[in-house]
Amino acid sequence: MLGKCKMTGNEKMFPCSAAGCPLFGDCLVEYEKEHKKNTAKPQTNADRIRAMSDELLATQFTQVVKETIKVLTNLDVPDELSNEIRSNLLEKLKQPADMRGEEE
Q1: At a CB cut-off of 8 Å and minimum separation 6, what does 54 contact?
Q2: Using CA atoms, how far apart are residues 84 and 15, in angstroms rounded to an integer?
Q3: pTM of the predicted model as reported, rounded to 2 decimal places
């Protein structure tokens, strides 16, 4: 693997074997970290959703439901109903997955 030496700034083939280098071995680790950081894919919306807790996902879904009802009916959803929707969604999210009919 070709990279830049942290001591000399010269391009080197890693792993480097420079005699007496205080970074011996660490330079390769640092190079790999930097390379991963520079080539990492940006997080997608789907990645963000997959990383959400059940509670946050239920809250986000509830907000979407409330906004949809508002657009379709021009009515605000009362807090009591909003809390019930969230509770039902959270309960559903915590149930085991029903995998019937899904393709692998």
Answers
A1: 90, 93, 94
A2: 59
A3: 0.54
Spell out where 1-104 has E strands.
Answer: 2-4, 11-13
What is the reported pLDDT for 18?
62
Candidates 43, 91, 88, 96; CA nearest to 62 is 88
What is the residue type of 12?
A: K
Q: H or E segment at 66?
A: helix 54-73
First to last CA, the chain: 37
Which pairing describes strands 11-13 and 2-4: parallel, antiparallel, or unpaired? antiparallel
Q: Where are the domains of the chain?
A: 2-39, 45-93
HSE-up (13 A, CA, CB side) for residue 45: 0
Q: What's the token pair of residue 95?
A: 């149930």
DSSP designation for 100: T
β-sheet bridge partners, residue 42: none
Percent of the chain with pLDDT over 70: 71
